[in-house]
# Entry
Amino acid sequence: MVLQTQHMRRTGRHAPAAAGAARGVDPGQQHGAIVGQTVPTPLGHNARMNAALLQIRDAVASDAPGIAAIYNDAVLNTTAIWNELQVDADNRARWIAERQSRGQPVLVASGAGGVVLGYASFDDWRAFDGYRHTVEHSVYVHPDVRGQGIGRQLMQALIARARSQGKHTMVAAIEAGNAGSIALHTRLGFVATGHMPEVGTKFGRWLDLAWLQLRLDDAPPH
# Structure
Protein backbone atom coordinates (compact mmCIF):
# COMPACT_ATOMS: atom_id res chain seq x y z
CA MET A 1 0.00 0.00 0.00
CA VAL A 2 2.82 2.39 0.82
CA LEU A 3 4.51 1.67 -2.50
CA GLN A 4 1.28 2.31 -4.39
CA THR A 5 0.84 5.66 -2.64
CA GLN A 6 4.41 6.64 -3.41
CA HIS A 7 3.91 5.75 -7.08
CA MET A 8 0.81 7.92 -7.29
CA ARG A 9 2.65 10.79 -5.68
CA ARG A 10 5.46 10.55 -8.23
CA THR A 11 3.23 10.35 -11.29
CA GLY A 12 0.20 12.37 -10.21
CA ARG A 13 -3.34 11.11 -10.61
CA HIS A 14 -6.41 12.90 -11.86
CA ALA A 15 -9.63 12.88 -9.87
CA PRO A 16 -12.27 12.86 -12.63
CA ALA A 17 -14.95 14.77 -10.73
CA ALA A 18 -12.67 17.34 -9.17
CA ALA A 19 -12.58 20.94 -10.25
CA GLY A 20 -12.17 24.47 -9.13
CA ALA A 21 -9.57 24.39 -6.38
CA ALA A 22 -6.52 23.57 -8.47
CA ARG A 23 -5.13 27.04 -8.70
CA GLY A 24 -5.06 28.37 -5.17
CA VAL A 25 -4.79 27.82 -1.45
CA ASP A 26 -8.02 26.74 0.21
CA PRO A 27 -9.00 29.68 2.47
CA GLY A 28 -9.87 27.30 5.29
CA GLN A 29 -6.47 25.66 5.12
CA GLN A 30 -4.68 28.88 5.94
CA HIS A 31 -5.98 28.73 9.50
CA GLY A 32 -3.94 25.90 10.96
CA ALA A 33 -2.27 23.55 8.51
CA ILE A 34 -2.61 19.95 9.57
CA VAL A 35 -0.01 17.23 10.04
CA GLY A 36 -2.39 14.31 10.73
CA GLN A 37 -3.35 12.00 7.87
CA THR A 38 -7.14 11.70 7.58
CA VAL A 39 -7.87 9.74 4.41
CA PRO A 40 -11.07 8.12 3.08
CA THR A 41 -12.22 4.87 4.64
CA PRO A 42 -12.49 2.25 1.85
CA LEU A 43 -16.12 1.53 1.04
CA GLY A 44 -15.40 -1.95 -0.36
CA HIS A 45 -18.50 -3.92 -1.32
CA ASN A 46 -20.70 -1.13 0.07
CA ALA A 47 -19.62 1.34 -2.62
CA ARG A 48 -22.47 0.62 -5.03
CA MET A 49 -25.03 0.44 -2.25
CA ASN A 50 -23.94 3.84 -0.99
CA ALA A 51 -24.19 5.30 -4.48
CA ALA A 52 -27.68 3.82 -4.87
CA LEU A 53 -28.85 5.50 -1.64
CA LEU A 54 -27.42 8.86 -2.63
CA GLN A 55 -28.80 12.04 -1.10
CA ILE A 56 -27.64 15.57 -1.97
CA ARG A 57 -28.02 17.94 0.98
CA ASP A 58 -26.43 20.88 2.77
CA ALA A 59 -23.39 19.98 4.82
CA VAL A 60 -23.50 19.92 8.60
CA ALA A 61 -20.64 19.94 11.09
CA SER A 62 -20.70 16.15 11.46
CA ASP A 63 -19.78 15.85 7.76
CA ALA A 64 -16.40 17.47 8.42
CA PRO A 65 -14.41 14.22 8.91
CA GLY A 66 -15.69 12.78 5.63
CA ILE A 67 -15.03 16.00 3.76
CA ALA A 68 -11.52 16.20 5.24
CA ALA A 69 -10.76 12.63 4.18
CA ILE A 70 -11.83 13.25 0.57
CA TYR A 71 -9.91 16.53 0.48
CA ASN A 72 -6.77 14.84 1.80
CA ASP A 73 -6.98 12.08 -0.80
CA ALA A 74 -6.98 14.78 -3.48
CA VAL A 75 -4.00 16.47 -1.83
CA LEU A 76 -1.97 13.28 -1.47
CA ASN A 77 -2.79 11.44 -4.66
CA THR A 78 -4.09 13.74 -7.39
CA THR A 79 -3.41 16.94 -9.28
CA ALA A 80 -7.01 18.02 -8.79
CA ILE A 81 -5.89 20.41 -6.08
CA TRP A 82 -2.50 22.06 -5.95
CA ASN A 83 -2.14 22.15 -2.18
CA GLU A 84 0.34 19.92 -0.37
CA LEU A 85 -0.86 20.16 3.24
CA GLN A 86 -3.59 17.97 4.67
CA VAL A 87 -6.42 19.18 6.89
CA ASP A 88 -8.32 17.68 9.80
CA ALA A 89 -12.00 17.58 10.71
CA ASP A 90 -11.83 20.72 12.87
CA ASN A 91 -10.38 22.65 9.94
CA ARG A 92 -13.18 21.52 7.63
CA ALA A 93 -15.84 22.23 10.26
CA ARG A 94 -14.59 25.82 10.43
CA TRP A 95 -14.52 25.96 6.63
CA ILE A 96 -18.14 24.77 6.40
CA ALA A 97 -19.28 27.27 9.03
CA GLU A 98 -17.41 30.17 7.45
CA ARG A 99 -18.82 29.54 3.98
CA GLN A 100 -22.36 29.02 5.18
CA SER A 101 -22.21 32.15 7.36
CA ARG A 102 -21.71 34.15 4.15
CA GLY A 103 -24.56 32.40 2.35
CA GLN A 104 -22.28 30.23 0.23
CA PRO A 105 -23.35 26.60 -0.18
CA VAL A 106 -21.47 23.51 0.91
CA LEU A 107 -23.30 20.47 -0.46
CA VAL A 108 -22.57 16.85 0.33
CA ALA A 109 -23.55 13.63 -1.38
CA SER A 110 -24.27 11.14 1.40
CA GLY A 111 -24.93 7.42 1.26
CA ALA A 112 -25.94 4.72 3.70
CA GLY A 113 -25.55 5.81 7.30
CA GLY A 114 -24.75 9.35 6.20
CA VAL A 115 -21.29 8.47 4.86
CA VAL A 116 -19.92 11.37 2.80
CA LEU A 117 -19.39 10.26 -0.81
CA GLY A 118 -18.55 13.69 -2.22
CA TYR A 119 -18.95 17.40 -1.70
CA ALA A 120 -19.19 20.61 -3.68
CA SER A 121 -19.11 24.30 -2.93
CA PHE A 122 -18.67 27.69 -4.52
CA ASP A 123 -17.39 31.05 -3.38
CA ASP A 124 -16.81 34.49 -4.88
CA TRP A 125 -14.45 34.35 -7.83
CA ARG A 126 -12.78 37.65 -6.98
CA ALA A 127 -13.17 39.88 -3.92
CA PHE A 128 -14.24 42.99 -5.85
CA ASP A 129 -17.76 44.39 -6.24
CA GLY A 130 -17.77 44.05 -10.01
CA TYR A 131 -17.39 40.26 -9.74
CA ARG A 132 -20.32 39.79 -7.35
CA HIS A 133 -22.34 37.76 -9.87
CA THR A 134 -19.50 35.29 -10.60
CA VAL A 135 -18.53 32.29 -8.48
CA GLU A 136 -15.81 29.66 -8.68
CA HIS A 137 -16.66 26.15 -7.54
CA SER A 138 -15.02 22.93 -6.45
CA VAL A 139 -16.34 19.36 -6.45
CA TYR A 140 -14.69 16.21 -5.07
CA VAL A 141 -15.82 12.58 -4.90
CA HIS A 142 -14.71 9.66 -2.69
CA PRO A 143 -12.20 7.58 -4.69
CA ASP A 144 -14.27 4.38 -4.32
CA VAL A 145 -17.36 5.82 -6.03
CA ARG A 146 -15.91 7.90 -8.84
CA GLY A 147 -17.46 7.30 -12.24
CA GLN A 148 -20.92 6.58 -10.81
CA GLY A 149 -22.49 9.97 -11.54
CA ILE A 150 -22.05 11.48 -8.10
CA GLY A 151 -19.95 14.39 -9.35
CA ARG A 152 -22.60 15.16 -11.97
CA GLN A 153 -25.40 15.15 -9.39
CA LEU A 154 -23.43 17.39 -7.07
CA MET A 155 -22.72 19.78 -9.92
CA GLN A 156 -26.36 19.88 -11.00
CA ALA A 157 -27.41 20.74 -7.45
CA LEU A 158 -24.68 23.37 -7.17
CA ILE A 159 -25.66 24.97 -10.49
CA ALA A 160 -29.29 25.12 -9.33
CA ARG A 161 -28.17 26.78 -6.09
CA ALA A 162 -26.12 29.35 -7.99
CA ARG A 163 -29.12 30.20 -10.17
CA SER A 164 -31.37 30.51 -7.11
CA GLN A 165 -28.90 33.02 -5.64
CA GLY A 166 -28.99 35.14 -8.79
CA LYS A 167 -25.47 34.31 -9.95
CA HIS A 168 -24.65 34.96 -13.60
CA THR A 169 -21.51 32.92 -14.23
CA MET A 170 -19.80 29.88 -12.73
CA VAL A 171 -16.06 29.48 -13.27
CA ALA A 172 -14.13 26.21 -13.16
CA ALA A 173 -10.33 26.12 -12.85
CA ILE A 174 -9.21 22.58 -13.73
CA GLU A 175 -5.78 21.00 -14.15
CA ALA A 176 -5.57 20.80 -17.93
CA GLY A 177 -4.74 17.09 -18.00
CA ASN A 178 -7.85 16.17 -16.02
CA ALA A 179 -9.85 15.00 -19.03
CA GLY A 180 -12.58 13.42 -16.91
CA SER A 181 -13.40 16.64 -15.07
CA ILE A 182 -13.26 18.71 -18.24
CA ALA A 183 -15.60 16.25 -19.96
CA LEU A 184 -18.03 16.36 -17.04
CA HIS A 185 -18.15 20.14 -17.13
CA THR A 186 -18.55 20.19 -20.89
CA ARG A 187 -21.57 17.86 -20.63
CA LEU A 188 -23.07 20.28 -18.12
CA GLY A 189 -22.76 23.19 -20.56
CA PHE A 190 -19.45 24.72 -19.52
CA VAL A 191 -17.29 26.11 -22.33
CA ALA A 192 -13.51 26.43 -22.42
CA THR A 193 -12.40 30.06 -22.13
CA GLY A 194 -8.70 29.89 -21.34
CA HIS A 195 -5.53 27.84 -20.96
CA MET A 196 -2.58 28.91 -18.80
CA PRO A 197 0.56 26.79 -19.32
CA GLU A 198 2.85 25.87 -16.41
CA VAL A 199 1.29 28.11 -13.77
CA GLY A 200 1.43 25.45 -11.04
CA THR A 201 3.52 22.54 -9.85
CA LYS A 202 2.94 19.27 -8.02
CA PHE A 203 4.66 15.87 -7.90
CA GLY A 204 7.78 17.42 -9.42
CA ARG A 205 6.25 18.64 -12.69
CA TRP A 206 4.70 21.77 -14.11
CA LEU A 207 0.91 21.91 -14.44
CA ASP A 208 -1.31 23.78 -16.89
CA LEU A 209 -4.61 25.34 -15.83
CA ALA A 210 -7.76 25.19 -17.96
CA TRP A 211 -10.57 27.68 -17.45
CA LEU A 212 -14.20 26.82 -18.19
CA GLN A 213 -17.33 28.91 -17.67
CA LEU A 214 -21.09 28.40 -17.51
CA ARG A 215 -23.43 31.33 -18.07
CA LEU A 216 -26.43 30.86 -15.82
CA ASP A 217 -28.83 33.49 -17.16
CA ASP A 218 -29.26 36.29 -19.67
CA ALA A 219 -30.33 38.93 -17.17
CA PRO A 220 -28.78 42.42 -17.19
CA PRO A 221 -26.46 43.27 -14.31
CA HIS A 222 -27.90 44.79 -11.17
The chain is about 30% helix and 25% strand. The beta strands are 55-58, 106-110, 116-124, 134-141, 169-175, 191-202, 205-215. Residues 150-164 form the longest helix (15 residues).
